[in-house]
Specification:
about 45% helix, about 150 residues, NA-bd_OB-fold, alpha+beta, OB fold (Dihydrolipoamide Acetyltransferase, E2P), transmembrane helix, NfeD-like_C, 5-stranded mixed beta barrel, Membrane_assoc_protease, Membrane protein
Length: about 150
Amino acid sequence: MEWLSLLDDHWGWLVFAALLGVGEVLLPGVFLIWVALAAAVTGLVALILPVPLPVQLLLFSALCLVSVWGGRRWYSSNPVDSQDPLLNDRTARLVGEIVIVVEPIDNGRGRVKVGDGVWSCRGPDAPAGTRVRVIGAEASVLKVELA
């Protein structure tokens, strides 16, 4: 608990904020920056007002909650555009691809070869070897049409 005495001074909070900021740069995750902001504000309050350590810790805790909540809210209303929005949506990436039926589509169900794997599919009846186009997906079942 000796390290807590370092935070009793406003410089301790400001150094803590700087370390958290460096941590955010080295380990990006858009989380530590909000805690660093709370530490910086606590340090500035400790600089301006002579508040005891327990009050500083309560202020820091409250500011952490508010800043993380505000950061999450801001990021949810202002999403970061991706260069590849379908990066983690494999089925959406397959839309438009031509694939080969490996197990005949019978009564609307069959299997198609996609790359080096085989996927379940739904679509018009087709014999094995037929080329079909992926037009969508539901969960891991591809929707296909005759190509």
